[in-house]
Design goal:
The protein has 530 residues and is of the alpha+beta class. The strands form six sheets. A seven-stranded mixed beta sheet has the order 11-16-17-13-14-15-12. A five-stranded mixed beta sheet has the order 2-3-4-5-6, with no helix packed on it. The protein has a three-stranded antiparallel beta sheet with strand order 1-8-7. The protein has five domains: 5-60 and 146-176, no CATH class; 69-132, Thrombin, subunit H; 186-258, Arc Repressor Mutant, subunit A, CATH 1.10.10; 291-406, At1g16640 B3 domain; 410-528, Arc Repressor Mutant, subunit A, CATH 1.10.10. It is built from 14 helices and 22 strands. It has helices spanning 9-13, 19-32, 38-60, 148-168, 191-204, 210-214, 225-237, 290-293, 319-324, 373-378, 447-459, 464-477, 486-496, 501-510, and strands at residues 36-37, 65-66, 78-81, 87-99, 103-112, 117-123, 173-176, 179-182, 242-244, 253-255, 312-316, 326-328, 345-351, 357-363, 368-370, 386-390, 397-402, 404-418, 421-433, 484-485, 514-518, 521-524.
Length: 530
């Protein structure tokens, strides 16, 4: 007899969920009367398969007796030995024996198979032994076999997807994320209940969990709370008016009608174009600057590991995020924002100085936080301004601050639209906050004209090298030292089109027209163009 199939990897890799397995899962729901996670269902299926195998083995050895050291046997009796792949043998002789430590017992000789091999075993052994079955034990307990939870731990990558696929295609089951329930066990949720839920969320002016919504909905009192909650969540999932905006692992319902119109799409100015190059080459001065630029499109492998326990971090606001009213989610800022379960999470943004609160939207998959346009305007923040994030006691509330100063007019580099193109020149602009002198760019007042240039560059993009040469030449001209810093080039390019720092730094490092001057500064030599 072969090794137990359920103890092998091949058995679970080739698993096909059968009707008897589904019937067992039905019973799990009927017996528990509550939603079940995939793991629990998988373990129940494994247990079902192991029990089936156990019953088959019992049937197979009905013609013999399971050998146990504690048993008494007679000559001619057929025994089955689990430790020998359930081989059967016949008792051919027995003799009394004694051991100073264990006392009296019997030694039996058993003949196996056609070869007539004879082996000796103890019988009438009154002391504990691993081969003895206790009350309620089964054959598997004598073999040191893995339990159903242990089997799931070993083979879950093979088992769980097959169960999920079977349940997803079976109309009798319904799921919410990793939780499953029989559809017939759902509470009846009608249109009136949904209208009440909509009103409750509207009045609350913020997301609500199912528990809060249930306070206004009358469901059968004898129905378990877990099923009531599951039923509400299931019904709201199917209604287009509602959106789950909770953090990962939490369900929080909000109304799509109250969400920003552009929450489902990445803002125009944050779209990163494909900029392929065969290899990345950096001047030695450039790579450390990646940590200072705070661009969400930078490969985290190129950045220094941030502190995930910092109580506050400060970033530099670039033009695409200033224009979009967003913040980047980078390795530096990610720990301050909850991860989304679906596409986005609604959070509360808190102005640390005024105490004002306003909604924000974390699109963690796309690495940005939406909802800061008004706050930027109120604080007169410009491209290059410092913005700080602060932890609060609530993981869904993030405090914001900027380093405000008394407003005054300063000379800064600015962008000016001339016809269908832009130029950079020194301009006087009112400044009301501290900023990174290398990344500040004054945007002027003609936002529509600047947007038109951006769209034109998106529809008919100039090669990055040509754009970088044009901007570098202009910035060098307005600097008395005749140089431009790499961070300044990055900030200026991103006023015209979205571009992470890596492609820009690569161009600086590989084309002779860009001449390094040290400490991140470069000059431009038009005579050395490729």
């Amino acid at each position: 007899m072969a090794q137990r199939a359920t103890q092998t990897a091949g058995y679970w890799r080739q698993l096909t969920v059968e009707a008897s397995d589904v019937e067992r899962l039905f019973q799990v729901f009927l017996e528990s009367n509550e939603p079940q996670p995939t793991e629990n269902l998988a373990i129940q299926l494994i247990q079902h398969r192991c029990q089936e195998e156990e019953m088959a083995l019992r049937s197979e050895i009905q013609g013999g007796t399971l050998y146990q050291p504690q048993g008494s046997y007679t000559v001619g009796e057929e025994l089955v030995f689990p430790r020998f792949n359930y081989d059967a043998g016949t008792v051919v002789s027995q003799r009394a024996s004694r051991n100073p430590r264990y006392g009296d017992f019997t030694v039996i000789q058993v003949e196996f198979g056609e070869n007539g091999d004879v082996r000796e075993f103890v019988a009438d052994f009154a002391h504990p032994h691993s081969l003895n079955l206790g009350e309620g034990e089964v054959f598997a307990d004598t073999e040191g076999t893995a339990s159903p939870p242990e089997l799931y731990s070993q083979y879950q990558d093979s088992i769980a997807p097959k169960i999920v696929n079977e349940l997803e295609t079976n109309p009798d089951f319904v799921n919410l994320g990793d939780l499953w329930l029989l559809k017939d066990l759902l509470a009846p949720i009608h249109a009136g209940h949904l209208n009440i839920a909509e009103a409750a969320i509207d009045i609350n002016e913020g997301p609500l969990p199912a528990d809060a919504i249930l306070k206004d909905i009358e469901l059968p009192a004898d129905m378990p709370a877990s099923i009531q909650k599951f039923s509400v969540n299931s019904a709201l999932t199917l209604d287009a008016r509602f959106d789950n905006v909770g953090p990962k692992g939490q369900v929080r319902w909000y109304l799509r009608s109250l969400e920003p119109a552009d929450i489902e799409e990445i803002p125009l100015h944050l779209l990163v174009p494909e900029l392929p190059f065969e290899s990345v080459h950096f001047n030695d001065d450039l790579e450390p600057l990646l940590n200072e630029i705070d661009d969400e499109a930078t490969d985290p492998a190129l950045l220094s590991p941030p502190s995930t326990k910092a109580e506050a971090v400060t970033i530099v606001l670039n033009y695409p995020h200033r224009r979009s009213g967003t913040l980047p989610i980078t390795p530096k800022t990610a720990a301050f924002f909850p991860e989304a379960d679906n596409h986005h999470v609604r959070i509360t943004l808190l102005d640390q100085e005024s105490g004002d609160r306003f909604p924000g939207w974390v699109a963690s998959q796309d690495n940005y936080v939406l909802g800061l346009s008004q706050w930027y305007d109120q604080n007169q923040l410009t491209t290059g301004a410092y913005v700080s994030l602060h932890r609060t006691d609530d993981p869904t509330t993030v405090a914001l601050s900027c380093q405000r100063v008394r407003p005054k007019r300063e000379w800064i580099r600015g962008v000016v639209v001339q016809g269908s193109k832009i130029i950079f020149q020194n301009v006087r602009q009112v400044i009301a906050c501290e900023y990174d002198d290398l990344m500040i760019v004054g945007e002027g007042s003609d936002q529509a004209a600047l947007d038109a240039v951006w769209i034109s560059n998106q529809d008919n993009p100039k090669p990055l090298l040509a754009l970088l040469q044009q901007i570098a030449m202009e910035l060098v001209k307005i600097n008395p030292q005749g140089t431009v810093h790499a961070k300044t080039l990055y900030s200026a390019v991103n006023v015209v089109r979205r571009c992470p720092p890596v492609p820009i730094f690569h161009q600086l490092s590989t084309h002779p027209c860009f001449v390094p001057m040290g400490h991140g500064y470069w000059t431009f030599d038009a005579t050395r163009r490729d």
